[in-house]
Design brief:
The chain has 518 residues and is of the alpha/beta class. It is 43% helix and 17% strand. β9 and β10 (354-358) form a beta hairpin.
Length: 518
């Protein structure tokens, strides 16, 4: 039985080291980073270890040598100089007004002002920041280290609220701009967040930040690599396999399928989500640990606002410039989805510099599609899982009548304003439903203008379906026969259903289905 204590939800390096929690040594990379640059930015999805990285930097720059005994840093660093560290965390629960941001920063500045001093004439948080940096350097005789965790949280929470986002942008631009003007007083600075708001000038004149988010050398500075998994948890892998009654290779493959697959640049190693991975070892079972901590609704609002075709998500193509910078005025939701960790890099075309995106792993794909359902279909978040189970049972039992009646209920009460985008709406709903059903049965889904063709396979049945918008169910069935969609299954022993379905603009719902059985 493993005696490791897994640091689930613990982001403080000092606590991890003092209390004997499991830690994967990242300090060689951290040493390289601090010795080769002074200003850094890192974007990674939530719960990927960004806060722990900054906490480790805080301990290092605070000269706490004893915490690094037995780690790479303990051998590499010789001087252990103690620097004044200003560590700000913007990961508050809610940002609803401009005052929320000011109050949060104010509370944190007060702690450091009590330590290093302040000036009563300073009125704004950026003026106070200037004074604090100068006084900290003068009082200690050493330049200042500045660490900002979740720098973008206010901006993300204000997506869709343009006026508030503009206020946050102006406030943060002035605040972060202080680091540029106080360069002579600063030893090191690092900002982390989920996204990079580049085009909207949150960083202002802070153009000396080295963005390492897509740098090959730092791909595993957060998260867990395959090599780290086997170097640090090999005996636990064997133990997990034994407990689950599967082979060692099977448990490794299952972990990889569920939690690996993040690629933060082209041709890079895959990275495991550390939160899900460590939870799997702690509880010795596979679950959607990352998803259970919550997915922000603004992601779905972006997809809906910009009328995004969900079918594109699994094979989206874009450029590094798009991936690297969020523009709140853009009509492209993909950079936010990517940087939030719901899509990752799956391929790269060096000739044109294009990246192909897709879901990183099963946990993210299944969790995100499931999360989307209540936002698009007439069902609640609580009911949606049960509805999918019923769909699957009906498909597996050959009860297509119940299946289509249930599908009709998903389109009931479609808002009138969606009529102008009815084709996209019905294709998105069908995509979500059949994607979720496809996690339990074999599914192939194809779309073209105005129609969808679909193949579902179970142990006993094969369904070949054609959905038409503004056509007839008879025309849909005729298309299946004319285009020989069922030809690959003519010799199959399973029962075959060819089903034509039409979708009505007037009723904004499935109108009719006709079935031809073999």
């Amino acid at each position: 039985m493993s005696n490791k204590i897994y640091p689930i939800g613990i982001q403080n390096f000092e606590k991890i080291r003092n209390d004997g929690y499991f830690y994967i040594d990242k300090t060689a990379l951290i040493y390289q980073m601090v010795k080769t640059g002074g200003y850094y930015f890192l974007s990674r999805p939530r719960r990927f270890g960004k806060s722990l990285l900054l906490s480790t930097l805080e301990s290092y720059f605070s000269g706490k040598k004893e915490l690094f005994e037995g780690l790479a840093m303990g051998k590499l660093e010789k001087d252990w100089i103690k620097y004044p560290v200003i560590h700000l965390d913007l990961n508050a629960k809610k940002f609803d007004t401009v005052d929320d941001l000011i109050r949060l920063v104010d509370r944190q500045l007060l702690v450091y002002e009590a330590q290093y001093g302040s000036c009563s004439k300073d009125e704004t948080i950026d003026d106070r920041f200037v004074t604090l940096i100068r006084m900290a350097a003068e009082k200690t005789g050493e330049r200042v280290v500045i660490l900002v965790d979740e720098y973008d949280k206010p901006m993300l929470q204000a997506i869709g609220r343009d006026e508030l986002q503009e206020e946050y942008r102006n406030t943060l631009k002035a605040f972060y701009g202080v680091m540029k003007s106080m360069d002579g007083y600063i030893k090191f600075a690092m900002l982390t967040g989920v996204t990079k708001f580049g085009k909207v000038c949150v960083f202002g004149d802070l153009n000396n930040l080295d963005d390492i988010s897509m740098r090959q050398i730092y791909v595993d500075i957060c998260g867990v690599s395959e090599q780290e998994l086997h170097d640090n948890l090999e005996s636990e892998l064997h133990e997990l396999a034994e407990i689950r009654g599967v082979s060692y290779d099977d448990v490794c493959n299952e972990l990889r399928a569920c939690y690996d697959g993040y690629h933060f640049t082209h041709n890079s190693i895959g990275i495991y989500n550390p939160f899900s991975l460590l939870n799997a070892f702690k509880y010795q079972e596979f679950s959607s640990y990352w998803f259970e901590t919550g997915t922000p609704t603004y992601l779905v609002e972006l997809l809906k606002k910009h009328h995004y075709d969900l079918h594109r998500m699994a094979h989206e193509e874009t450029t590094a410039e798009v991936l690297n910078s969020i523009d709140s005025t853009s009509d492209n939701p993909i950079p936010v989805i990517y940087q939030s960790g719901y899509l990752t890099i799956k391929g790269y075309d060096p000739e044109f510099g294009n990246y192909r995106l897709g879901f990183p792993n099963r946990e993210v794909e299944q969790g995100f599609i499931k999360f989307l359902l209540p936002f698009y279909a007439n069902t609640s978040a609580v009911e949606s899982s049960f509805e999918i189970q019923k769909f699957v049972r009906e498909i597996e039992s050959g009860d297509y009548e119940s299946f289509f009646r249930r599908l009709q209920s998903f389109f009931a009460d479609t808002p009138y304003e969606l009529v102008r985008d009815l084709e996209l709406h019905y294709q998105n709903v069908l995509f979500i439903v059949f994607k979720l059903v496809g996690f339990y049965v074999k599914a192939e889904y194809h779309t073209s203008e105005g129609c969808v063709d679909l193949i579902l396979q179970t142990d006993k049945f094969i369904y070949v379906m054609e959905f038409k918008l503004n056509g007839t169910a008879e025309e849909a069935l005729q298309q299946i026969n004319d285009k020989h969609y069922a030809l690959p299954f003519e010799m199959d022993e399973r029962k075959l259903f060819k089903i034509g379905v039409n979708f009505s603009v007037e009723t904004r719902n499935i109108e009719k289905w006709i079935v031809e059985e073999k």
